[in-house]
């Protein structure tokens, strides 16, 4: 409930002059779970790539193409996660510098 509603003042649409429904507050768990899931998937891919590399180095697997594909996927996912992190930090700093 907004402070205006608590004081008994109805919310009015600035363009229509009639009451509007207050927006639902977002708890942020959607973004947190999205980030957690993405980090988990990236970690799983890195572990698969590490396992494939170790198997190839030990001579148990002779599929260099498959090994390189797993390593490339892990590299791409890790760089993507790093770029997303950098964009989130840039957005935070942009909001921080914003004058109110």
* Total domain count: 1
| N to C succession of SSEs | HHH
Alpha carbon gyration radius: 24 Å
- The count of β-strands is 0
- Beta content comes to under 5%
Major pleated sheet: none
Shape: elongated
- Class computed from helices, strands and strand pairing: mainly alpha
Structure explained in plain terms:
The protein contains three helices and no strands. Helix content is 68%, strand content 0%. The mean pLDDT is 82. The protein is elongated and about 60 Å long.
Highlighted features:
100 residues; mainly alpha; 3 helices; elongated
How would you summarize what this structure contains?
It contains three helices and no strands. It is mainly α and 100 residues long. The chain has one domain (28-97).
